[in-house]
Design brief:
This protein is an alpha+beta fold. Helices cover about 40% and strands about 20% of the residues. The mean pLDDT is about 85.
Length: about 650
């Protein structure tokens, strides 16, 4: 087995900055341990501790050498087995990989005690009840506070400075992140401990090609050097932010409620936020009880974290197949020996890009470790046995020569590559949503018959479809569906989104069209976009290039005549004096509405300039509640400073602004 040198100069720099000097280990041994984790049972205690310290510092420095799961389940577990009372286990895990002044923390930041089973949490609850009884509190009146445990970078904000957790007592001043524009959830500084996090979906979409993991990304926000343009962008888009715990949505209830509905509550809380979550935190709220229970040097006794074990499987790779996306990026898809994981049979997994396939040796016969947690698509966590990877040099679809663009292989035959064309057309009809029958099978068949553009599809007559081998009935249907998609009313932002310009998803399209009329988008310049603060500069440039690429096709398709509903411009609303109280506000509708279908109310709110969201965050302005809304949902929203209003209050608010 060829061993990879994943321990490199970057790692040495981080260790040096963290003040770690290798004493019992050397580079070669570190590489050996990383490559063969089982080797750990044979090393001395000193080496084990040193390896843990090294792994910890590198993890915090943004260059992890082993996965979180391995750190816990192999290395930390080995130490616990050998010496459960070792000071490494009881002290707060150290961190010191960042430059900046070392300062005493205003309040010590302790770790949270972690448990991995429901049984252990129930046992902790019993202890709570016992302590409460000890000091004469009524057990039935106790409240437990439950919040998601963010998997970000822990820091403390005293309103003046932001500190890393450091060793729990002394941290590093990293206030520079705020001068870099990092936003605070809830908008207020000085809210104490929290985490620097990045929106999961945003990370997957825009950052995962550039950063191996979110940990890596979080470190580059903090690190003292020129800010990476992608990081800068994410900060400007508020996809990355500092999230104080006090702003976190939470569930609160009695110990009995928690016992009775443990699974339901933990699942609910897990999904409160759109950031990486690696557990659930339970804590008691009664101050007297907190004082009585106190803390160890490591954690508070009145607080506990529940980390469910992620399911893992060791699987053999059968082959890795390239797939060309509509943008020309070639994605590696690993075909696996079918394996059961979290109750689902998995036979495919994606590797991020071909650079990863090459670097990690993901080839036919490789043995990999697969991890699946919650709803996340399985990802390749670790390669146990490498195999020679197949790196394609030709596009699997058009056979043209592929080129490397940083970590990705790209097919550059835009407009000629079948996969790109077919996926583009599929995206168009999928996004319009008002046309049936144009799935991949139909589009494939049309492509075979030389119909390669959206415009050409709209030009087809019933006889053309029949000539291509579609049945009589189906041909009729396809023609009437195409007609329907042009006559039925369609939001103009949706129409634009259907062309799949990179960085112009649904929300961005709507946002863009609130500033610029659809007819004028091709005249936009990068200066216009940044001056009007529509998008940050880098996004603007990507979007403008993408718009030029679709321009011809867009203009001729639009000329076919679609029944487009124009997005209201902000300037128009203002001019008409019709700027509504909800313009620019983020609104969530929940529960059954009386006024109309929820979807229609959302549409109406959009016409009035509001942004519609689905889950409550610190950025939400109004939660409009219909019938059957749980009290918890309301309390959670109120706690976050969200205005909770009834449907009637909402209607009063927008009365006079509704334009029919
Ligand atoms: Zn191609």
């Amino acid at each position: 087995m060829k061993q990879k040198k994943i321990f490199n100069q970057d790692h040495r720099t981080i260790l040096k900055r963290s003040g770690i000097i290798l004493q019992t280990l050397n580079d070669e041994e570190i590489i050996n341990i990383i490559n063969q984790p089982m080797y750990v049972s044979m090393i001395s205690d000193d080496k084990l501790i040193e390896f843990l310290r090294v792994a910890n510092a590198l993890y915090r420095g943004g260059k992890p050498i082993i996965s979180d799961a391995d750190y816990d389940s192999i290395f930390l577990a080995e130490l616990k087995k050998r010496n459960p009372k070792h000071e490494f286990l009881t002290s707060v895990e150290p961190e010191a990989a960042f430059e900046g002044a070392k300062v005493d923390l205003p309040v010590p930041m302790l770790s949270t005690e972690k448990k991995t089973s429901k049984k252990e949490i129930l046992f902790w609850l019993e202890g709570i009840e016992k302590s409460a009884t000890d000091i004469g509190l009524n057990v039935n009146e106790l409240r437990v506070h439950v919040t998601p445990k963010l998997d970000g970078f822990a820091a403390y904000d005293d309103g003046r400075c932001l500190y890393t957790r450091g060793d729990g007592r002394r941290g590093t001043d990293i206030s520079r992140v705020f001068s870099r524009g990092l936003a605070v959830a809830g908008g207020k500084r000085g809210r104490g401990a929290g985490e620097i996090v990045v929106d999961k979906e945003y990370f997957e979409k825009y950052l995962s090609d550039h950063f191996e993991n979110t940990r890596n990304f979080q470190s580059s926000i903090i690190r003292e050097k020129t800010l990476d343009p992608y990081v800068d962008e994410a900060i400007k888009e508020k996809a990355a932010l500092f999230f104080p715990f006090s702003e976190m949505p939470s569930w609160e209830g009695s110990i009995d409620e928690l016992r009775n509905r443990f699974e339901g509550i933990t699942e609910e809380v897990w999904n409160y936020v759109t950031y990486d979550v690696d557990g659930i935190i339970f804590e008691v709220t009664d101050i007297r009880l907190k004082e009585y229970m106190g803390s160890t040097s490591h954690h508070h006794r009145w607080q506990i974290a529940y980390k469910t074990n992620m399911e893992k499987a060791i699987v053999k790779v059968i082959s890795v197949k390239p797939q060309t996306s509509r943008s020309g990026r070639v994605t590696p898809v690993a075909e696996l020996e079918p394996t059961k994981l979290s109750g689902v049979t998995i036979s495919r997994a994606t590797a991020h890009h071909y650079a990863m396939v090459k670097e990690k040796g993901i080839g036919p016969g490789a043995i990999i470790e697969l991890v699946r947690s919650g709803m996340v698509i399985p990802k390749i966590e670790r390669v146990i046995t490498r195999a020679k990877p197949d790196i394609p040099d030709k596009c699997p679809s058009c056979g043209s020569h592929l080129i490397w663009d940083t970590d990705n292989l790209i097919c550059t035959k835009v407009g000629h590559c079948p996969a790109q064309i077919i996926n583009t057309i599929e995206h168009f009809f999928k996004t319009l949503r008002n046309v049936d029958g144009f799935g991949l099978a139909t589009i494939d068949k049309l492509f075979e018959n030389g119909v390669k553009t959206i415009y050409d599809i709209y030009m087809l007559k019933e006889d053309d479809f029949k000539g291509f081998g579609f049945g009589e009935k189906q041909s009729q249907n396809l023609v009437s569906e195409l007609l329907r998609s042009r006559t039925q009313s369609l939001e103009d932002w949706r129409f634009l989104a259907a062309f799949g310009v990179h960085r112009l998803g649904h929300v961005s399209c709507e946002h863009l069209l609130q500033h610029v009329h659809l007819d004028n988008i091709f005249e936009l310049t990068s200066e216009d976009i940044t001056r009007k603060k529509i998008f940050a500069k880098k996004t603007a440039e990507i979007i403008l290039k993408g718009l030029q690429d679709i321009r011809n096709e867009f203009e001729r398709v639009k000329k076919l005549g679609f029944n487009l509903e124009r997005t209201k411009l902000f300037s128009e609303l203002r001019k008409e004096g019709a700027i509504s109280p909800i313009t620019g506000k983020q609104i969530i509708f929940t529960g059954a509405m009386k006024h109309g279908k929820r979807e229609e109310m959302e549409k109406e709110a959009r016409l009035l300039g509001a942004k519609i969201a689905k889950s409550v965050t610190g950025r939400t302005d109004f939660l409009v509640t219909g019938e059957d809304v749980g009290i918890k949902k309301i309390e959670t929203a109120e706690k976050k400073g969200v205005r909770v209003i009834t449907e009637l209050e909402y209607l009063d608010m927008i009365r006079g602004y509704i334009k029919k």
